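Board notes, transcribed. Complex of a protein with nicotinamide-adenine-dinucleotide.
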Amino acid sequence: MARTYLITGAGSGIGKRTTELLREQGHTVVGVDLRGAEVEADLSTRQGRERGAREALDATGARVDAVIACAGLSAPSPTTVAVNYFGVVDFLEAIRPVLASAEAPRAVAVSSMATLHPNSSELVEAMLAGDEQRALTIADGLAGDPQTANQIYGSSKRALSRWIRRESITDMWAGAGIPLNAVAPGVVITPMTEELRASGDGMALVDASVPMPLNYHQSADSVANLLIWLASEANTSTCGQTIYCDGGAEAVLRGEDAWAWADERVLAYYMEHVAPLMQRDS
Ligand code: NAD
């Protein structure tokens, strides 16, 4: 059945390809971007997000089946924090009430395998606390030092993926029947990486930090197709996940045992919630 999608970052790269593929499948898409989309809005500012969300909802007649948040920046600057974290979270929260009234609502964002890269925990915590002013000030400090400037992008994506895990299981999302997830690409062939891919030194650095044993650099389609599935009616039960669609980079970096870090937490949960039921039954 034809659905109505809101897509941020629809003017270029992954967002543009996702928009094209969905339209080819007969769906309606309202794009939001700085330029080249139905709604032109600057998601780096609070006013821009509010206006962008309002105009996007107006354009759909307040009927949205899914939101796909692709807009993002990779520059080592505070604006990256404003767009990649607050531009996604504020936009999703603004659309959520209308989304909740859809029959099969879905929300997906584009994170990154850079969630795994060295990051600033101070910056990540400021974002997760919703303190945009403090986050921008911390990012400004990091941007001034070439040793720390590169932590800004990874920090914005780490915070986004953590926000998605945290919020996805609450009454606002899972409780309202809305699967909320993210896709984490590796190096995608889009305008964002064009300059980097054209430089030998830049490429050596990127390939060392994003090792992609499966098929090397990926197409925008490889990400768009997963976003489309996560935003489709077929996705009934994937919740809070950041799915690494990155040619194997996450598996290389995290290694074979990506589970043990949470064993103590799971054991504590088990002791509190499961063990008492077993005692009662015995
Ligand atoms: P892109 O540069 O081709 O597209 C990004 C889009 O976001 C552009 O159309 C741009 O105008 C829009 N945008 C930027 N700032 C904005 C703002 N203030 N307000 C509204 N729109 C704004 O890049 P892409 O590769 O398609 O990136 C899409 C997403 O994928 C981003 O979130 C990016 O971080 C993420 N990502 C990309 C790669 C990659 O290798 N290209 C890897 C991992 C994650």
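DSSP finds twelve helices and seven strands in the chain. The beta strands are 4-8, 28-33, 39-40, 66-69, 106-110, 180-185, 242-245.
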